[in-house]
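To: structure desk
From: M.T.
Subject: fold request, one chain
Message: Could you run this one when you get a chance? Sequence is below, nothing fancy, just the single chain.
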Amino acid sequence: MKYIEPHAHMVSRTTDDYEKLALAGCAALCEPAFWAGFDRSSPAGFYDYYRQLTDYEPKRAAKYGIPHFCWLCINPKEAEDPVFAREVMSIIPEFLDKPTVLGIGEIGLNKNTRNELAIFEEHVQLALDRDLPILIHTPHLEDKLKGTKLILDALGSFSKLDRGKVIVDHVEEHTVNLVLEKGYWAGMTLYPESKCTPNRAIDMLETCDSDRLWLNSACDWGVSDPLAVVKCGFEMKRRKKSAEEIERVLFENPKRFLSQSPNFKIG
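Reply: Done. Structure tokens follow.
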């Protein structure tokens, strides 16, 4: 089963996980900038993190034959202090020309605050200025619906935005159609214990227009499974989905979206 892992935080994973991804048929891996498990204390911490994403992780993945790509931003969890956030954002353009950078992400909201929203909009403008795709994080649990609506309202104010180059991630049953109806892509994040289980994701695939949906594994500091996408593919097979449908969701859809970045190239 060939698939793309479009949203994996591999700096939080062991080298064994790269080996497992390779054995499972991972054709490419895309890593968004995200929270380190604690708030960074200085812009220099982000500078080194961007070096890790653009230089070290591609080399680590290459040892297992996996092309590694990344997204860059200051994540919403650390964007509450706009002075600090703008200092970090001033570093990002230096890295945007690196050969494995796809675009801006994962930006979005965490606590749905005014400051987070301001930094979110500045990231969107940076992506527009560079004509780059955008990956968006939506808040968890009870804040998800409100945060998703705030994000979609903010995006609506950018008249030149190509909605086909924006993916809104971590959708669930109550937000997926809000995103798709506005013309954006939607990402479903698979967790073993929270967010979206494989069966919930497959239910959504059955009830929504799946042409702009992709699946991604939650790979982070907590309980998560870097093989969740391929396991979902096996569950789709068990539920009598055709090989063509499985390949479309696990490989062709993310490839189509990611190929809008000139740096995304796989064999």
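Reply (cont.): Strands lie at 3-5, 26-31, 68-72, 101-108, 134-137, 166-168, 185-190, 213-217. Let me know if you need anything else for the meeting.
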